[in-house]
Amino acid sequence: MEFSKQEIDAVYPKVAEVIADALGCEVEDVKPDSSLIEDLDAESIDFLDLVFRLERAFKVKIPRGKIVEDARGDLSEAEFEQKGIVTPAGLERLRTFLSEVPADRFRTPQKAVDIPRLFTPMTFCKVVLRAQKSAPAA
Prior knowledge:
Blueprint: H1 5-23, H2 44-58, H3 66-72, H4 77-80, E1 81-82, E2 85-86, H5 88-97, H6 121-134
Antiparallel strand pairs: 1-2
Helix pairs in contact: 1-2, 1-6
């Protein structure tokens, strides 16, 4: 699912504000391609808080684990990762799905547990937009 610049621009300011609030940083420090973990010091527990805050801010439901599940797409778990390492097919799928992530952030081998290190504010804009599009019309 691709999104237009207008769709992204419509949600980005609020997503950036939620991220800054959740991580206790300045909104100016939240850049579209910042790594939430590497650049903004998020920890895994922060992702739960962040998803909860985004659900409230945008009045959407974001199932836990949805980003990685969506990233895997139609690949089976075994096709996506083996022994904790993302397969070449899985890595290709990740690069496509997380197109907003600078290419140099992907590692070979890419550990599955390190996938959240790739997440950026733009990743969460796309999560919000996906949740909005999949929500039943009120």
